[in-house]
Amino acid sequence: MSAPRVRFAPAPTGFLHVGSARAALFNWMFARHTGGTFVLRIEDTDPARSRDELVEGIERTLHWLGLDWDEGPYRQSTRMHLYAEAAARLLAEGRAYWCDCSREAIDARTPPGAPPGYDGFCRERGLERSAETALRLHLPDEGETVVHDLIRGDVHFDHATLEDVVIQRRDGTPTFLLANAVDDADMAISHVIRGEDLLPSTPKVLLLRQALGNLEVPIFAHLPLLVDDKRAKLSKRRHAIAVEDYRDQGYLPEALRNYLALLGWAPPDGREIVPLDEMVEAFEVEAVNKAPAFFDTVKLAHVNARYLRALPVATFVRESLPWLMQDPPWPPERLDPAVFEAVAPLVQERVQTLGEVPAMVDFLFLEEPCIDDESWAKAVTGLPEAGAVLDDAIAAFESCPWEAEAIHQATSDVAVGHGLKLAKAQAPIRVAVTGRRVGPPLFESLQALGRAPTLERLRAARRRWASEQSPTPSP
RNA sequence: GGCCCCAUCGUCUAGAGGCCUAGGACACCACCCUCUCAAGGUGGCGACACGGGUUCGAAUCCCGUUGGGGCUGCCA
Fold first, then answer.
1. Nearest to A213 by CA among A91, A88, A92, A86
2. What is the predicted ipTM?
3. What is the pTM (predicted TM-score) of this model?
4. Strand B positions within 7 A of protein Cβ atoms
């Protein structure tokens, strides 16, 4: 048997749906695993979707995900003559006919309670082509078509339940069924791997191919759908479903790719974080699950965090920089890459996405820390010794060596002096300097910030504390 | 309504008749570690939808029920 040929055939919509991305990934893994050919085909028969930038967007996003293709992108918009020729042949051979029924007319003919759908009204009317007619394929009324599916087994469709479908619109453009059937045959696609939502249309494509005289029948693999928390197909309305959305939130392509591979399939040995080449080696379409999978962003975030932590620090720094430079909450010129580098290893194991990086280090670049009210109340107002702790810290920090270990020691001494645990004593200092109760390790943070800014912030906090202690004088 | 698909912890899954007192991961809870938060470690909670078969034996095979989903466009 010759090497498999598979294709990813998206319609350009301006973004890449995560479900499509997964279909692309599975096709790609299948091709790479089998030594087959991965074809990219853009289904842009609809003129409104045939814009160059939309196609380029798909290419860019696939590349971002690390998926490359061996052929294409073919664009259906440049192959319209093939579909027109096929339609003409079907018409000439009496396998298709013109129909001028509107949706309303079809519905009006449907008796109450009867299943809706086209009834073959125009089959024998002998209509000519006009501005009012679309071309329908005459499907058989008897018999059945069997779809051979590597994931679902053989699926049988009774021809009596199939309606004659439109294959060419009034304006002469082909519907996806026609373009799809023609191209898969023309491009010698051997395995069609796509979403399960396309399963019901499969017998029609097969019948169409047969009418066109294609004797080859591709093998199918219908992937389980990606669903939301309510088990419904992911919709654009309610979810972030564009691959680009995740990219913009600071997800790593290898993490998203790895997570996507986990939906409907499981790498061997129960491992979940698996390098691409090992995925490719282990991938088998037959092993793909049948049940729909919930696209769980919580787990995606975990996978991303794992990849983030595994990055060499220098790479993490490089990847973080764009997030630190774009719309920062601090004056842009205050960003000091060297300062960020100093704390980067500490930040790296505390974020799940690159998008979280700025908030974790904002205190280093802000003129003044943005003090969180709740943190202040808990760590400063709520600690009777807060004022004294700040005083002692100021005194100690003025002279101690400006190095994390020494700052740590000095702070421990302050804590001991007040009979406090270090955890308690460091809290007001942390809030005074960083504005929050949580963040990267304090002493390394102070070292990176520098002695002068640290003292300044501590004194400011001390003043605020004092003003809150004395009752505000009434006018 | 019709056609089609699906059904293991909350979620993603392992499981292809005895290895299952059903394994792992995420999430959650507790403890340990600890300057906060993470990370890490340990432990815990937690599932074979239901009913019939087949079989010495069923999460695994068959049938039915129930539940969920998809399709039913001159979108793809």
1. A86
2. 0.96
3. 0.94
4. 1-8, 11-15, 23-27, 35-39, 68-76
